[in-house]
């Protein structure tokens, strides 16, 4: 007989799942940007997963961020990279949470080096922990 598959919610607390998502995003940033954030923090709020990444700018991006054109380029490139990797990210989030994703939103601050990724899910994940 095969092993019964345990759903992600049965295996993790909310805090453990938030940490798992943070770790997955750190790995993703390292693989796709060449370096990861200094810090990552994830919050599950109803059907929303909010990820805050600190220290994400590369030295080259920090240099580019000195003028408006550079800031615009950084934001464009980061948004495009996330969009082209969306399938990978959706799979990662679904594997961890057991929920399908509805949408992804992102923005990066070139002043603070922070990036926010907001993911909406097709169901209220937070209520499953209560």
Question: Describe it for me?
Answer:
With 130 residues, this protein is an alpha+beta fold. The protein has one domain: Alpha-Beta Plaits. The chain has helices spanning 8-11, 14-33, 59-64, 68-84, 86-97; strands at residues 39-45, 48-54, 101-108, 115-121. A 4-stranded antiparallel beta sheet has the order 1-2-4-3, with helices on one face. Helix 2 runs antiparallel to helix 5 (86-97). The chain is elongated. 18% of the residues are buried. The model is unreliable at 1-6 (pLDDT under 50).
Q: Count of helices?
A: 5
Sheet with the most strands, sense and barrel status: 4 strands, antiparallel
Order of H and E elements = HHEEHHHEE
Helix amount: 40-55%
**Which topology does CATH recognise?**
Alpha-Beta Plaits
**Sequence of strands across the biggest β-sheet:** 1-2-4-3
| The CATH class | Alpha Beta
Task: Determine Rg (CA atoms, Å).
Answer: 16 Å
List the domain count as a whole number.
1
| Beta-strand residue fraction | 15-25%
Q: Which whole number gives the mean pLDDT?
A: 89
Describe this protein with a few key phrases.
alpha+beta; Alpha-Beta Plaits; 4-stranded antiparallel beta sheet; 5 helices; elongated
Question: Topology, please?
Answer:
Blueprint (H helix, E strand, L loop, with lengths): L7 H4 L2 H20 L5 E7 L2 E7 L4 H6 L3 H17 L1 H12 L3 E8 L6 E7 L9
Task: Please summarize what this structure is.
The chain is an alpha+beta fold and 130 residues long. The protein has five helices and four strands; from the N terminus they run ααββαααββ.
């Amino acid at each position: 007989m095969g092993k019964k598959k345990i759903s992600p919610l049965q295996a993790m607390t909310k805090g453990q799942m938030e940490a798992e998502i943070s770790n997955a995003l750190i790995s993703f940033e390292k693989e796709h940007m060449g370096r990861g954030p200094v810090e990552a923090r994830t919050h599950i709020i109803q059907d929303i997963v909010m990820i805050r990444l600190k220290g994400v700018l590369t030295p080259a991006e920090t240099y580019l961020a000195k003028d408006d054109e550079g800031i615009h380029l950084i934001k464009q490139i980061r948004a495009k990279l996330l969009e082209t990797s969306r399938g990978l990210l959706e799979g990662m989030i679904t594997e961890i949470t057991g929920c399908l994703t509805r949408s992804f939103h992102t923005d990066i601050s070139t002043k603070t080096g922070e990036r926010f990724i907001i993911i909406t899910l097709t169901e209220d994940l937070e209520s499953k922990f209560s």
